[in-house]
Amino acid sequence: MNKKGKIPVHQMDDWFAGVYMKPFGAENSSPLAYEISRPHRHDFYYCVLVDKGNIELEVDFEHVQLMDQTLFLSYPGQIHRIISAQLERGWFLAFNPSLLEEPLQNILDQCLSEIILVPLAPEQSMSFFSFISHVYSVYTDPAQLFQQTILQSLVTALVYQLASTYLSTERFHLIRHPARSIEITKTFKQLVRRQFKSLRRPSEFAAQMNMTVSHLNDTVRSVTGFPVTYSIQQELMREAKRLLYYSDLSLKEIADSLGFDDATYFNRLFSKVIGVSPGTFRKQGEKTVHV
């Protein structure tokens, strides 16, 4: 495995207004053909609408299959690689997180799923396809007055629509839970995503949310099926796995980057949560990841 010391990060160099778009189809070369099977992370969001075709991905060690009429959103920082792609009709859209206003950013950070994958009804897929086509017409028209402002507003509206579609599915699965319990769980999820390196104990999260540890733990467990410690550890170990698989950082350097003062404790916790030691996990990755 040819690693370079840290995970490659694809950045938004020279993109107009913090946006990159491209259609894909039979007449186009695939926009996703670059560095296929090379693990990397982005510092931006990217969205894929597959109206017809399929893409096989690995996202943070989870296998993801995008089939006909599927919408997918990747968060900044997630590690992914494209395993295969046969694309006939759809869109690729990437955008800078700074485009999103705070309420929309909060909505995305509070999603309970780590992978935003939304199956669409035919009419929904047609609606999204049409919407993105309109965004693209603005994106490719330098004569459009107020092009940058219009483009950024349209992308924001599109992401709101995507979030609405995802949340409709999420709420269906959470319908038996009280609204207040869902709100608490989502706020906790957002804190974990944003502060998992600096906040480690359930009591620290509870203090941030102005509630007792027992109330936070009981609420999160009732909604997700897991205690708060599970979510905290999963977020930490997800980043640890990224660094073990796709970097040459030493175990001590990884422990330091995750806020562990004691590398031995990090090793014990990783072994307990993941089921194998960090060293074993890294060796398994060297056998299975080809870049």
Characterize the biggest β-sheet: 8 strands, mixed
CATH superfamily of the largest domain: Regulatory protein AraC
Total of domains? 2
Query: How many helices does DSSP assign?
Result: 10
For the secondary structure, the number of strands is: 8
CATH class of the largest domain: Mainly Beta
CATH architecture of the largest domain: Sandwich
Amount of beta strand? 15-25%
Q: What would you note in describing this structure?
A:
This protein is α+β, with helices and mostly antiparallel strands and 291 residues long. The chain is built from ten helices and eight strands. The chain has helices spanning 102-109, 122-139, 147-173, 179-195, 202-208, 213-224, 228-246, 251-257, 263-274, 278-288; strands spanning 9-10, 19-25, 40-42, 45-59, 62-66, 70-74, 79-95, 116-119. Strands 1, 2, 3, 4, 5, 6, 7 and 8 form an eight-stranded mixed β-sheet that branches. Helix 4 packs across helix 6, helix 4 (179-195) runs parallel beside helix 7 (228-246) and helix 7 packs across helix 10 (278-288). The termini are close together.
